[in-house]
Amino acid sequence: xxYQIKILAVLIAIFTFSACGETSxxxxxxxxxxQYQEAIKAYDNVLATKPKNVKALYNRGRAYEExxxxxxxxxxFIAALENDTKNIQVMLSxxxxxxxKKNHNSALLYADYAVEVPGAPAMAYFLxxxxxxxxxxxxxxxKEYSAAIKMDKEFGQAYFYRGILxxxxxxxxxxxxxxxxxxxxxxxxxxxxxxxxYCK
Length: 200
Prior knowledge:
The protein is mainly α. The chain is built from twelve helices and no strands. Helix 4 (about 55-65) runs antiparallel to helix 5 (about 70-85) and helix 9 runs antiparallel to helix 10.
């Protein structure tokens, strides 16, 4: 009987401890509700006691990014990557962030890191292609868009940008329109305007 009371006391203590204070999940709830400032505060509370918590660093960076504070987001993403050097999601977020900052060399660097990790998703190849495209390396960009499409046949954005690349480099217009039409079919909205402009 005494043993059962001790177990019950331990379970109550664990429940009480987990219910008190901010957790990374609190930040996630605020983030999902679009309350990015509150999410940042919740992640700050987690990081006050666990400064190397990759999830909290990464998610706080995402909240900063949503608020348009790309410099603070960059700091958090880099800190998260320093604590988990094979985290593909963080690498992809850094690549995307550098695209937004028009730092295409850094965008390429982090996309390239992500592609090198075994099991990298189609998005890694797509972000690498976007950076190469922006840097004017159209042949390599074409290969990476194609790799992304090969991995995910329903990647409308990759079809769209590959089609635009084909148009810009005067590669077969019919083939470019096939890609743009596929992007429209896959509900990538930006493709509708391109379809009307180039493929009618």
